[in-house]
Amino acid sequence: MSSLDITVVFSAYALALLIALLTTGTPSDHVGRRPVLLGALAVQVASMALFATVGGLTTLIGARVLQGIATGAAGAALLDLEDLVRPGRPALANSIAPVTGMAAGVLAATLMVRCTPVPTITVYAAQIAVFAAQAIALVSTPETVRRRPGALRSTRPHLALPSAAAHALLLNSAGVVAVWALGGFYSFLGPGFTRLISPGGPEYADGMVFFTLTAVAAPTVYITRRMRADVSAPLGNCAVIPAAALTLGALHLAGPVLLVAGAALAGFGFGAVSQGALRAVVDSVPARGKGGTLASYYVLSYLAMSLPAVGAGALTAGFDLRAAALAYAGCVAALATVAVATLTASLRSRRRTPSPDAHSRPATSNYTSASPDTPAPDTSVLATHDR
Fold it and tell me: What is the pLDDT of residues 346-359, one digit of tens each?
């Protein structure tokens, strides 16, 4: 397949996931968590079966669409499983689990490619077994929601943004686009880019770049969970700039070590920016407004992940992968630079301008603080990236 074909396939997954995330989360409040999750697992099994028997581009796109719908539905149902006693814990787990799962999946698939006779079937058969085991375990799990009418009406996407959340999202938008676009590049075009830099390398090395990104992103989300949002987001964006530079250096120096180092920095940037930006956005709204706010955040994120990758695929088809990588990395570095400048200026402005009632009450802000004594906020980053 061409680079454009690959990006279209992966973008179909991202867009299907986004649509499912926007439309299937709230119905779980009406029909229950278990039915939504069981349905998502059934669709995942169907998508794995399609992958195992894929015979062309159309079938592959169909399998990715099913996978995106299932992942989005599962993520949406888990998104609002908040523990009132320990607020933020389920959301934090839901932030770390996707990137951890992706890292483990890439590693397991790489081992199967090397060690099993028919890896194109074995990989998907193993995943079908995992999903079936999850479904069996889920059946014995108690339902946490009482059924109520209005499920069909609740599938309407929620994109309403309160003014405070809109301001926070706009402030962090450049950084969010930068890290999700860079993640999309490593995910969609990483294997081809690896072969371009190291054409004589083994096939299993193609997935190691994306594995590095996700393996670093997962602990970064956990480490930055109590870091101030207006510190973790600029810090992550600062890491994105040298990550893009290392990627370009690997291209011109044919250095796979530079490419892996760039992916590691990109993983740190992804985890820190996603955690900080999402926390800044959702902390600015009350619990009732989090659904539409999260939906808006994910719209921006998944569009940033898929659309630039499609553009890079088109540029690769018209020119070559080198030109696409140069343009992609340059744009990402420019966005990260804008994000650092914008967030730093905003932080300085807030420090110089105290609130009107600063003398009458302690200055606290969910946006700028997350002390150990404060319950962890709702910080789901990507319940639903490519698992």
Answer: 888 877 766 554 44
